[in-house]
Amino acid sequence: MSGATQVSERPLTVFEKIWLPHVVDSLDDGPDLLAIDLHLAHEVTSQDAFRQIESRGLPVAHPEKTLAVVDHVVPTGTDGETRWTPRATEFATDLAANCARHGIPLLPWHHRSQGIVHVIGPELGLTLPGTTLVCGDSHTSTHGGLGAIAFGIGTTQVAHVLANQALLVDRPRTMSVTIDGPIPEGVTAKDIALALIGTYGNQGGAGCAVEFRGSAVTELSVEGRMTLCNMGVEFGSRLCLIAPDDRTVDYLHRRPYAPQGSDWDIAVAAWSQLRTDEGAHFDVELTLDATAISPSVTWGTNPAQVIQLGQRVPDPATLDDPEAADTARRALEYMQLTPGTDLRDVPIDAAFIGSCTNGRLEDLRAAAQVLAGRHVAPGVRAIAVPGSMTVKRAAEAEGLDGIFRAAGFQWGDAGCSLCIAANGDLFAAGTRAASSTNRNFEGRQGTGSRTHLMSPASVAASAVTGHLASPADLEESTR
Fold first, then answer.
1. pLDDT of residue 334
2. 14-169: what fold?
3. What fold, for 296-477?
4. Which one is the CATH code of 174-292: 3.40.1060.10, 3.60.130.10, 3.40.50.1260, 2.170.270.10?
5. Which of 71, 217, 340, 396 has the most beta carbons within 10 angstroms of its beta carbon?
6. What pLDDT shows up at residue 75?
7. What pTM was estimated for this model as a whole?
8. Alpha carbon of residue 201 to chain centroid
């Protein structure tokens, strides 16, 4: 070991300003031992980790620095019933037992603060700028929208964090993605993320620590920033972050676990220093023109297979790369689409609004605005699942649930639900769904189902028209 890394006097990126002070030690020309401020656990990926540490007689080093929640397999009541499958019951029961045995706080099903792990962390004020955060879930990058270094880890790494509150990890390369220009009307953070992935590919981030910058990024709400960072893992990045600013401070103010009193003033002063210095070095620099983005939709089986609504499904025969052409052919075969098809002519059977990507209050408001006074097209099964019980209460206080129900949507409880087709929340084989989730992999929302990723507003518009559409298409149809 070479000793802990000292913060350099050279210009630093935001990533370096957070990472370097957290390095406990470093291997020469090797990984860093990184101190972890917060570990979030859920019922699916943590059980083996508990077994690993217990088999070695190791206690949880800092139980107060882990928060556990049930979210992936809990029933969300989308069919009006409470369904606990044997598998879901086992996961939830085991997590509760492990947390009780090790003194770890747990948010069980229907706790007033329960919800998707990447929704509750920020809304409770547990996710803070300048901190390090890990979870056994790939979309942990979400928390970077608040200026935290946050990334997903595997089961063995979860065990290491439980036992040591530290993690031996390679320091990623740094990348800046500058997104400039005013955001066009009707374009959301989800559309920006899909445009980025479509432009540079699902390995464009190539394991990097990505800092999103530029006027379009600062224009986004904090919830929009979390959506952008959430989708960053679909860009291939290791983690994503956005420098905190006044919007970040306003979002966190008076959150339950955010600093209070004089500690708040100290924290805000520290967060104000989390800016990339002039002249700081990035290993890779990319740009994206926000003014050229419009509402988008995926046509294939990974998020990079995306076009703007109004464009036509590409022809694999026009692709120069044989591997890419073969991937596109297989995707079109699975999706049952023909090259040259305008995706606005593609009918849907189902619509889903929710997930850690787009299950926040802002997302539900955007969808409800589209749905107000309208109704889901005949034959379309439409479901909305709030990202947390806190979001659910807030939405119901605003009457959003009434708008969803009047429009023909099922209104659920908090959980991951149809993002991963867990616990009976799934679409049947052959179902074509417009979805506000993050992955359109084969069978992601049910074996044999077909997923088109869109923003919540576009999902709502698609549900109303019965085919893939954006809110602008609804306005056109009424002129």
1. 97
2. Aconitase; domain 3 (3.30.499)
3. Aconitase; domain 3 (3.30.499)
4. 3.40.1060.10
5. 71
6. 87
7. 0.96
8. 18
